[in-house]
Amino acid sequence: MKISVSELIVRYLERLGVDVIFGMPGAHVLPIYDQLHGSKVKSVLVKHEQGAAFMAGGYARVSHQVSACIATAGPGATNLLTGIANAYAERLPVLVITGETSTYIFGKGGLQESSGEGGAIDQGSLFSGITRYHKLIERTDYLGQVLNQATRALFSRDAGPVLLSIPYNVQKELVDASVLDQLHIPRQGEPVPAQSGPVAELARLIEAARDPVIVAGYGAIKAGARGKVARLSESLGIPVASSLKAKGVVSEGSQWSLGCLGVTSNGDAYRYIVEHADLVIFLGAGFNERTSYLWDSKLLAGKKIAQVDRDAAQLNKVFKADVAIHGDIRAVLTELLALLESDPASHGLASQRQEKLLGHRHAAARPEDAETAGKRAQFRLMEAFFAGLAARFPEDAMIFDDNIVFAQSFFDVSHTNHYFPNSGISSLGHAIPAAIGARFFTQTQEKDSPTFAILGDGGFQMCCMEIMTAVNYQIPLNIVVINNASMGLIRKNQFQLYGERYIDCDFVNPDFRLLAQSFGINHRKIESEADLDDLFAHADLEGSINLIEIMLDKNAFPTYLSAR
Asked: Are 217 and 286 in contact (CB under 8 A)?
């Protein structure tokens, strides 16, 4: 049976399991949009193509499935770039579909042409560094091979965005529907087996260690190993520090949690590792600039190091491990626990190590000096907000956070909550669209997940029109705007490093109450802890759209240094 290429692409989306495609129509993708009409794939109209890319990223991040976005040729495609770069950095399987002018006018100066011919923008080159696979489909005779290549990239162990750019005339050509039967669509990447020798060696290192510490990264969460990490920690008495992306890998309110390791954190995990640890076990953690305190040599000095990662490229990338295991983290921990829990030598280790950890906590709880207490008081509303958030929603909440700094120190994430920091390329304007994309997935699962998008007032103004996307599709969402009328990170750096020579960091905000009113959503202004108490006691934070404005002094600066 013959069908159009545009219909084939929509059927391809269905076969990939794509439920929702985020985008904005344009003349060069209308044949595909016409086939989306009445299909199983729901199309979502965004306000800007960057929002579509961020929404697709949020969907993929929560679902661990292929997501999709679509845009027209030229400016539609170029507007996707930042969001797709973010998905590339996060290794998210996002299928990007863009239109293109008809092939018979390539090089002739067609409207919005981006074929790369005759001096036109070369769209493929723009996306080449931020996709795992990209193709301008100029003919139909190799369409099956192209779709297989795209599928392989989307489902690979090293997944990431894929771009298919389809000229207008090609979308309307007829092909045999059997092309779809050539596809091989795996449901998951092939598992990486654990390696028994190194696992036994790691078990011996743990038993011989005086004060081991686990540093768990997002790889542990992605592997579905949260429960295994907690069991290893509790049965062997090993404290757990997490990377920023892995906050909540074990409940941060538990006795074995050291909290978040990172330059913008409160420093508890750093101090424990430097002062006590003799073995550091990295589980799916890349030890990047944030986590490593700019690769501070004191963190690992004089310590044994073990590393487990599914990605072989991460092993020994930054440091030389005494034991490096390439394998699925969950499988490795299962084998490791079987070895350790059956060995009498490991019995009683938990109680011995617990005493050391309690002593550290007691020392760390000494009264703050006046300067530290004053600094902390500057951020009392942020600390109280995150304490209230953790108390009100101890499970099943999704938090997309562009600000990061306050949550890293003040937010205790439970192992059943889901914290998604903007850690890809750290682009402003991410949290709101990413959270909206995530909610589209949870709604397909008929799951109620209270959702928060947390961002500064500068980033808010880069993406605030996507609130109308939430309004249009009745997506419940809590938007938390930190209002200090400045680009806080820039102002902090200019205070710390540039002699308080402030330039282009301060601005005037709109009236957020009136803005919320124009969107038809609720507004709350938080100026005191009493306002927070009222928010968490009386606001509908699960079924409505709320704009929550938290006031912050623009001259209240975190003490960490973010530039070198």
From this structure: yes
Could you tell me the CA-to-CA distances from 48 to 29, 77, 113, 454, 468 in Å, in that order?
Answer: 16, 11, 20, 20, 11
Domains, the chain, ordered by start: 2-182 (3.40.50.970), 196-364 (3.40.50.1220), 370-551 (3.40.50.970)
* Cα gap 439→55, rounded to integer Å: 9
Alpha-carbon distance values, 40 to 19, 33, 95 (Å): 7, 13, 17
Question: Residue 438 — very low, low, confident or very high, per pLDDT cuts 50/70/90?
Answer: very high
Q: How would DSSP label each residue in 148-200?
A: HHHHHHHHSTT---EEEEEEHHHHHSEEEGGGGGG----SSPPPPPP-HHHHH
Question: pTM of the predicted model, to two decimals?
Answer: 0.91
Question: How far is the C-alpha of 546 from the C-alpha of 46, rounded, in Å?
Answer: 19
- The Cα–Cα gap between 541 and 479 comes to 10
Q: Do 303 and 320 meet the contact criterion of CB atoms below 8 Å apart?
A: no
Distance in angstroms (rounded) separating the CA atoms of residues 290 and 218:
14
Distance CA 328, CA 245 (A): 18
The tens digit of pLDDT for each residue in 192-215 reads 555 657 999 999 999 889 899 999
Pairing of strands 174-176, 2-4: antiparallel
Planar angle of CA 188, 192, 194, nearest 5 degrees: 140
CB under 8 Å to 457, separation ≥6 — which residues? 481, 482, 483, 484, 485, 486, 509
Backbone torsions φ then ψ of 15, nearest 5 degrees: -65, -30
Burial class, 369, CB count within 10 angstroms (exposed 0-12 / middle 13-18 / buried 19+):
exposed
- Three-point CA angle 56, 59, 62, nearest 5°: 145
